[in-house]
Amino acid sequence: MKERYSYQAVMERRAEIMRKAVGIDYDRFVIKGIAFDYERMMKEVGYPIEEIRKIQSETSVGNTPLVELKNINKLIKKLAPKGKGARIFLKDEATNPSGSFKDRRASISIYRASQLGYKGVIAATSGNYGAAVASQAAKRNLRCIIVQECFDNNWIGQPEILEKGRACEAYGAEVVQLTVGPELFYYTLVLLEETGYFNASLYTPYAIAGIETLGYEIAEQTQKLTGRFPDAVVVTHAGGGLITGTARGLKKAGAQETKVIGASVDLRGLHMASTNDFNKKYFTTGHTGFGIPFAAYPDRADVPKNAARPLRYMDRYVLVTQGDVFYITEMLAQLEGLQRGPAGNTSLAAAFSLAMEMEEDKIIVVNETEYTGAGKLPSAQLTFAKKMGMIVKRGDPLKEDKPGQVIVIPEHPSQIRHIEYPLEELKKSYIKELIRRENKKDFDEKELSFLEEDLRISRKELIKLIDEVKIALQGLP
Q1: Element (H or E) spanning 176, and its range?
Q2: DSSP H helical segments within 310-422, as ranges?
Q3: DSSP-based three-state secondary structure for 408
Q4: What Rg value do the Cα atoms of the chain yield, rounded?
Q5: Chain centroid to CA 368: how far?
Q6: How far is it, in rounded angstroms, from Cα 102 to Cα 132?
Q7: Predicted confidence (pLDDT) per residue in 179-225, tens digit
Q8: How many CB atoms lie within 10 A of CB 5?
Q9: Which among 305, 243, 293 is positioned nearest to 456, based on CA atoms?
Q10: Per DSSP, what are the bridge partners of residue 316?
Q11: Is the pLDDT score of 228 beyond 70?
């Protein structure tokens, strides 16, 4: 019995467990080597947009309001150089049943589980997705287990994650809380195998298809309010699903020219799987600890082929500091009367800065908000940060912020400024990860064609990138 449940034995059964738990035969989409037919997988496994809207309407998901931030826009006009200062609109996803856009991806996964006859669902997540899965499972009369990475090795848990655990329990889910590390994936696999439940992974085609309605609604509502599609949509970037689904929805609605800009909290230098670093971040997701690795190696997910492919859709990637996001969270509450959770305001902080550089006739849409509660408020997060030894001070975040050491709250809104992260660096990292993890030395014609699509670059640019990475790796020990 012990051998069957050893870490190694469970990992060896991973593919078999996943195949039974998601009801998808990923092998039929593999072309050769690393190459697979992404669009065919999305078409054959996912659902058409009208069917998704119908499924979501059954559980009151979607059709959230698009709100112009009129007072914040007046402030931007005051601060921006002459002729600059784009208008910001906010997609208020907190009005979904469990309080975030995650209801969209959960709704389709749970519907699928119900259609396939599963008795229950399991999701491994420390974010809002757990509450969304629990809420949708309750609506479809399915049992639900949420597995959370919650504590460091001293069993100290973050208030935001603990808050989300309480939300899951309130919806009737069983919540399994673990310390940081490989236990999350191990226990999820064991639970899937023992219960025979459906894996409501964040990264299946169902989950991504569920978010497409968000992009579709943004395009429709912006056109209705302003007479045209948005010039840019700013998306909080973590595992890549939100960007992928939003961008696909925009394109399906006809918004081909809208720029999709990813935004993450800058926590570079912190290792999220490290118990030492786990409680030095004050946002569950939406930070570089997820944003960079999931863009650079999307197939690190819990399914064989990740349907979230951010580099196919991202036009720019920008970073903001934790202090910027706490500040804009207070601004949203005090100027617009909207108290929303700080993690969802990462993209708003980036949009505020981007609006300063864009022409005044341009339109930016921030694609999400999230619910807030006692453990998610800036006051709770900053109090916890101080207890964990962080310095919290007022000043200029761009100059003084140090991830894991110093959180700097702006003294003035003009100090909210983004950091540009070059997409080429992400694409180089993607190639580097393929060479290292897949032991690739060369790529054949089908793999090169796949990489052109997955990185959205020309063959000439791709070959140049591969050569540069190979040279760089030769210099490493």
Answers
A1: strand 174-179
A2: 322-336, 346-357, 378-387, 397-400
A3: strand
A4: 21
A5: 11
A6: 6
A7: 888 788 899 999 999 999 999 999 999 999 999 999 999 999 999 99
A8: 12
A9: 243
A10: 261
A11: yes
Which residue type occupies 148?
Q
Helices (H), 286-377: 288-296, 322-336, 346-357
For residues 279 and 121, which has the higher predicted lDDT (pLDDT)?
A: 121
* pLDDT value of position 46: 83
Question: For residue 214, what are the CA distances in angstroms to 39, 57, 137, 244?
Answer: 19, 13, 21, 11
The mean pLDDT value for 98-104 works out to 95
- The pTM (predicted TM-score) of the whole model is 0.94
> Is 129:202 a contact under the CB 8 Å cutoff?
yes
Q: Which of 145, 147, 235 is nearest to 186 (CA)?
A: 147
- The pLDDT > 90 percentage for the chain reads 77
- How many whole angstroms separate alpha carbon 61 and alpha carbon 64? 8
Q: Residue-wise over 184-207: b if at least 16 C-beta within 10 A, else e?
A: bbbbbbbbbbebebbbbbbbbbbb
| Rounded Cα–Cα distance for residues 8 and 6 (Å) | 5
Residues 365, 246: contact at Cβ < 8 Å? no
Handedness of CA 103, 107, 113, 117 (dihedral sign): positive
The pLDDT value recorded for residue 475 is 66
For residues 282 and 226, is the Cβ–Cβ distance under 8 A?
no
pLDDT tens string 288-318: 988 999 999 999 888 889 999 999 999 999 9
Helix (H) or strand (E) holding 112: helix 102-115
Question: What are the beta bridge partners of residue 264?
Answer: 319
Residue 185: the pLDDT is 87
How many helices (H) and strands (E) the chain has is answered by: 20, 15
Tokens (6 digits) for 299: 């197939």
**98 contacts 132 by C-beta, under 8 angstroms:** yes
Token pair, residue 52, equals: 């998704």
Q: Which residue has the tokens 């399991």?
A: 122
Give the position of tokens 């090795």: 153
Q: What is the SS3 assignment for 445?
A: helix
Instruction: Specify which residues 146 forms β-bridges with.
Output: 123, 175
pLDDT value, residue 254: 98
Average pLDDT of the chain, as a whole number: 93
Reading phi first (left if > 0) and then psi (alpha if -120 to 50, else beta), residue 196 is in left
CA-wise closest residue to 286 among 355, 204, 368: 368
- Torsions phi, psi for 295 (to 5 deg): -75, -40
